[in-house]
């Protein structure tokens, strides 16, 4: 089982990237046509929208699920696919400059994803190297069970905590209460 610390520097970066993924994914999904037109890749509108769904899924995984490492590696793989699509789009394209800007932005995000993955793996290695505390000799009681047995048998019972006379067993009649 992988250990993760939900307040570590790596996890904080992963959460930030998760929010970024959701925002980018929503933009790609909702404005896929405008983004494609800006990059001169109008024929890839549906592909950009599909990438938006991938980004949203990865972002939700980073924010909502336990270990963020698989989701960060998913972001890195998605970035590689994005860069391949953008590199293809930059060929013989009248707006290759815009696609180049997008390529640079994806490259920067990829670098951040790689830094995050490294941090998460280093933190996990650190926590795995710590000794595991041994609590097998503990019972959870302040003293040994044998020392506590009967300790409260001679404690005084408050009047309001006693059984009412009417409900007490009467040995002479064998019944409860007075008739």
Automatic annotation (TrEMBL):
Annotated transmembrane regions: 12-31
Keywords, ordered alphabetically: Membrane, Transmembrane, Transmembrane helix
Keyword flag Transmembrane: yes
Protein name in UniProt: Cyclase dehydrase
Lineage: Bacteria, Pseudomonadati, Pseudomonadota, Alphaproteobacteria, Rhodospirillales
